Amino acid sequence: MSHYTLSIGVYGDGEDPSHRSHWGFLMSKPGQAVGNLLHVQLISLQGLVYQFETRSGHPLQSQTCKGMVLLDYIQPANYNQVVKIISEEPAPRNGKVRIPLL
Predict the structure, then answer these.
(1) Cα separation, 76 vs 78, whole angstroms
(2) Which residues contact residue 98 at a Cβ distance below 8 angstroms, ignoring those fewer than 6 apart?
(3) Which residue would you say has higher pLDDT here, 91 or 1?
(4) For the CA atoms of the chain, what is the radius of gyration?
(5) pLDDT at 101
(6) 18-62 pLDDT, tens per residue?
(7) Distance between CA atoms of 82 and 6, rounded to whole angstroms?
(8) In sequence order, what E strands does the chain have?
(9) Strand, coil or helix: what is 83?
(10) What's the order of all strands across the beta sheet hosting 22-28?
(11) Using CA atoms, how far apart are residues 16 and 11, in angstroms rounded to an integer?
């Protein structure tokens, strides 16, 4: 049975305040050059407001990707559940904690 890989990609070096470094979840099939990027996109640099975004067919290797780490292998039956969990997490606003820490 085939599976998907769940990785985190780190984008940008963070040296320019107008182009902040960030990370996103990448889901792809092993051996593929593209996958789905699940991340938060900066929509207001002034207030550090982000919104969730999904990009299908995103290249796994790009000029802005500084590195990746493999988190897990996902069975196809669990793919939609993983996407749902990631996409329902609130995006950060003003650099504040979004959920209570336990």
Answers:
(1) 5
(2) 89, 90, 91, 92
(3) 91
(4) 14
(5) 45
(6) 777 778 899 999 889 889 988 877 777 776 777 778 888 888 887
(7) 9
(8) 4-11, 22-28, 34-44, 49-59, 65-74
(9) helix
(10) 49-59, 34-44, 22-28, 4-11, 65-74
(11) 12
